[in-house]
């Protein structure tokens, strides 16, 4: 199966371990993520103003590239890209007059007709590949690894883009269970990590990360799993300061779900890019006999 | 528009529209529209019937054959029929009538089915306005021309 | 915020602008406060999200001077939980946008140290600038 | 044919826009019209006298009154004509006010033209109207009441006391309904045992009431005055004629099941009496859990123990047919399942309960003997959080409406909790406190003072378990601060919803529900006790959630409606029904299919459609389906419609 894929900026740089592990795991499942031959920054955050059009042009161009690849589905890994592309696409579908304006801004291009569907890689795994099939490919079950799924905001909200139930999502739990991991349910798995406030209000983001991580460790969680590079950055890198600030604070490593897939599929350790983590995951993985 | 008609040397076309209104809802809505003095064009000539499900296709065709330019059927919203499901029957029949209309060379848009409840006086007036305007744009019933020829 | 509200005439021009930019009908809100109860950043805000909606309902432009829209991280918790389906996140975006369109920047890029800039991922920088500056 | 046309000015309402002279001139030319006359107010006494006089003088055999909508004065003018011997069905109304003068005020000429067309078309109709007499049908002077809660009990007693027979059908083994589950009632703090139980006993002993407990209405046919009802009497596996209600059987039964009456707060046995004051006070075996009934052999301990020998594992359900003249639906309400409220941990945490469950915990005679303990560990909760509007006023996720009774019972529960746990503290999250009843606001104020409850104005966002406590995340919009409470027990005032199975029952009864399942009244303001199907009335919360005071009033109102309908031995019906021209009918059966009321059958001997006029509602769907115009609706004949259409469709 070949599916058009939109990487976004992070996956080519500081989150390249997310992409590498995703590509490697996908190929185990017979899925080829075909990167758009040319792509443009999605804008990172969806422009929510009704009268804002120019910031929607780049997503439209990405959809045109998708159609050129002969697809009507566009897969993303990054939650922020997913949310931005999906919301922008819905806006264009709902407002044909606005779509016409957007098309007029790119007069050198074909018109975008609103027919591309944006999906997240998790949806593809759940709805097209199926977790049962994933279970068959597991060589090294993540036995005894207590992981806490962390959805953050943008996979679930607003409801128009939700990949799962808003209040009681299960897609990551189901995925991790199929890899053999033990699920730790944290009530804060849908709570914001502070997102871009890490720049203006680092303290605020830091407080949220503290709440999110301690809610996990309190429940016996040994690792957090996410699908968002920014969540990963905040949850991972801000923990360093927390150890200084709160005596007895227990650090936990933060993984992309694709890293755990690659691990369970028995792929080479280098696709995991574990050296990129701030909170060192090696001890945990070694203690479980996973590396 | 007025200028255009002068150019063509014709008078402004005023369509004739026959309305079949269920006595339980759309007739009441038309009453309400009048009571609160909503203004709509006088082109719609109403007949009060027991139920939209009472409307035999032949009545609609008869109206067109007699020269009506449009026919408006008004019934209760689906699920709200006084006779439980008469409006569903009307909905099915309208589909059939539209097929017959096409075969006679009548545009199917000349027949419209609307669900207008007792309290929807405003909707009644809006539909009357809009439908009259639509038929006015469509021009006279083509069967009339045939008849004349 | 102190002082009394002197309601001579609700500033409909301001409300109209907000409605146009946000596409949100703020009048539907019955002030249950669930947006505030759901907001993870409410401790940091000077007024609660429901008070932000309230000021807009009253057409009070002081809302533009509050910190709340700038503390908002656009996590959509308020929007998802609102019983009336009011998109409060969009409202906050509109409030930011109205300020930003006056060429006001809320983040000073040149004040971020080079070391910090090198360390921060572009996804954090770009999203922050999109929300807090008029130029991006 | 001698038709008289009377044109009303309605003051300036008609004459101010329409040209009356022009109308008179044009209508007078129409064939069959022998007299046209106008008057300033036709509906006034002199106006009516004018019509009566002309009918006699001019020997009119049909009349068209051109005035306001027929829904206003059709009856007036028909009765008026009847008083001088003209058949009322030979009078028709041409609506030239609502349909011509009012909506076209600025276009007098066109409006006058339209009015003339309307009048002429009505003249054509009345010319072919046939004189009719109302159908008079005998009635069965008995009433079926469905649902044995306080509404059904009240309606049954009112009717039975007036001397008519009542069949009271209740699907559970005992009557009493929701009220029997309450601890104490607001605002008087009466215990339901003290005020409802006597009424339940009165029902059981009333000579005019046939109580069918553990039974369901499965089929209804017929029409107002003459309904035929099939009631399924479910098998109880206990001979109720022998059972004395001693409960020895329940003591020996080895199977424990979650109690419906205690909403899961306690357990009952597989053979059980719903509650000590149950009426009838008889045991019932739950076939889904009884070991003997599930496996077909073994156990049988109850049968061995029963001193009356009442247990009968072979008992079968029975269908009984009853005839009634009117039906009252009193099926009440349910509360929303708390497990639907995932963000509040409903169904997930044992100590997040519904207010109905808390009623059972607070009830002095309840499973805990009135001791307030929480379900998870039986400990006394020191911090209780009440969440109002849980599932209500939330069109985006749950129910859009206000569930009306929650503000009051939450206040009551906070007070009863404080009485039971004086060193405990209650927090109440609310959006608005609604106290719309006699003595309600005073009660609420008493609760504030006496229970010292902390009322917090805000809707709770989320509840989850943290460090052994229930963390409630809310807000206090009055101080503008977020709120976090670590609670021992959370009570959700879950939305009121229509009772389970109501949509199916509504289908059986041929009455309508709204999108949620509340029964639809004939008119929200003016006919709140009636359904659109004549002879079927609504009592109590089945129409919409209401408190006990309102329910009892509503039920007495429904009883009065049924009594007034059945006060005579015969009732009259509109004679506008379908008729068959036997010469033309080919017996194709299209009409049988089109008829919603099963009023048409093909006679197997003659192969001709036959109409049961008693069942025909006069909708005319059969007429539209008949390929040969053999079946027609009286006074809406095809001929009439054709004449009207040809007048109206012409330019």
Q: Taking strands numbered 1, 2, ... along the chain, how are they ordered across the largest sheet of chain D?
A: 8-7-6-16-27
Largest interface, counted by CB within 8 Å of the partner chain's CB: B-D, 46 and 47 residues
The major β-sheet of chain D equals: 5 strands, parallel
Fraction of helical residues of chain D: 25-40%
Main CATH class of chain B = Alpha Beta
The percentage of residues in β strands of chain B lies in: 15-25%
Q: Output the structural class of chain B.
A: alpha/beta
* CATH topology value of the largest domain in chain D: FAD/NAD(P)-binding domain
Mean pLDDT figure of chain D: 96
Question: Could you characterize the architecture of this molecule?
Answer:
The complex is a heterotetramer of chains A (291), B (149), C (136) and D (651). By secondary structure, chain A is of the alpha/beta class. Chain A folds into two domains: 2-121, Glutathione S-transferase Yfyf (Class Pi), Chain A, domain 2 (Up-down Bundle); 131-287, Rossmann fold (3-Layer(aba) Sandwich), CATH 3.40.50. Chain A is 43% helix and 10% strand. Chain A has a four-stranded parallel sheet, sandwiched between helices. A four-stranded parallel sheet of chain A has the order 6-5-7-8, sandwiched between helices. The model of chain A has no long low-confidence stretch (mean pLDDT 96). Chain B is of the alpha/beta class and 149 residues long. Chain B has a single domain (17-148), classed as Rossmann fold, CATH 3.40.50. Chain B is built from six helices and four strands; from the N terminus they run H-E-H-E-H-E-H-E-H-H. In chain B, helix 2 (26-35) packs across helix 5. With 136 residues, chain C is mostly helical. Chain C is globular. The longest helix of chain C is centred in the last third of the chain and has 13 residues, at 88-100. Chain D has five domains: 3-128, Ribose 5-phosphate Isomerase B, Chain: A; 142-230 and 321-332 and 501-565, FAD/NAD(P)-binding domain (3-Layer(bba) Sandwich); 248-305, no CATH class; 334-497, FAD/NAD(P)-binding domain; 574-634, Alpha-Beta Plaits (2-Layer Sandwich). A five-stranded parallel sheet of chain D has the order 8-7-6-16-27. Chain D has a five-stranded parallel sheet with strand order 18-25-19-20-21. In chain D, helix 7 (150-161) packs parallel to helix 17. The radius of gyration of chain D is 32 Å and the shape is globular. Classes of the chains: A alpha/beta (291), B alpha/beta (149), C mainly alpha (136), D alpha/beta (651). At the A-D interface, loops of A face strand 22 of D.
